[in-house]
Amino acid sequence: MENLRRYAWIALVAATAMTAITTFQTQMQMVVRGEEMSLVSMLTWNAVIWYVWGALAPFVVVLCQRHPIEWRAWSWRPLALQALLALVFIALHATIVSALMQVSPNWFGMPESYFARVVRLLTTQAHWGVMCYLATAACAHAEIYFRRARDESLARAALRTQAATAQLSALQRQMQPHFLFNALNALVAMLEENSKAQHFTVRLADMLRMLLQHGERATATLGEELVLVNAYLAVERVRLGARLRSRIDVADALLDCRLPSFLLQPLVENAIRHGIARSQEGGEINLRAWRDGASIRIEIDNTGASPSSEPGSGMRMTLPNCRDRLALLYDAETRFEAGFGADGRYRVTIVVPDRVPAMERAA
Known about the structure:
Number of strands: 7
Helix content: 55-70%
Structural class: alpha+beta
Largest sheet: 5 strands, mixed
Distance between the termini: 33 Å
Strand order of the largest sheet: 2-4-5-7-6
Order of helices and strands: HHHHHHEHEEHEEHEEH
């Protein structure tokens, strides 16, 4: 309602300006032709024409916002709808103006018959109606695209901030990362060749290197996320041994799917920390991804957790963070669910559209 009121004020100003301009133009034409016409008559005629259009223009803007022409996903239907709306509004304009002129048709120089006035207006004023509709629709679409670009820019900034936060949470470090990375590489050189400790340190260094490389990026591919998950699982496998069993089943065709950076590793970490690590027998974690129609579905499930157990603070922070970051990237087209299934496993389900996010295309 607030936007409609704002559009109405803009339309009022535009109608007043066009009334003054066309009245002056008509007056000049009369002077050139040597004809005479009352200034009041000219002003009233143009005022009726333009103020009626000014009253209709806000509704044109609202309809354009609800049914915009999308150049990114081209379809003839929105264009056909806009053409139909243009015809409707031109006809509506003629019928309203004709009704207002019913007060004194002769004074306006119009036929007595209502239908004849409508036909006269359509034949003499339709070109103005087309131009007015096109101008109004163009302004409405310009505002739509401007707002969309601004929102996508803000969303990209928010994603970068959340990616940095996720990186810091995943590392949980208190020292400068490059110093730690260099220290780990030095430690690798000091350890016995091919020893268990050396392999563990190499894995840890690899994981840190990936975190440093992708720390400034708002998004990553599913393939890049899986590399980080595998490195993390390798580190945890040294600590938990046979208690940690994992399986990853992702088709190569899905590896280019875009996700917020550092989305999957915190979810895998939660599954291990709050499920498998707490169980004396350990447990299993599965990560699967497959194409489901026009979407890509990713599932992470694990054993070892209990519905009666109190979720840790890390889980209470990670799940909303992941949900918010997915919403920023794909808006309402994404789905994020977490909870215990009928099989007793804790399961996180992520559904994203099988396309490149809008902000990635704009970048």
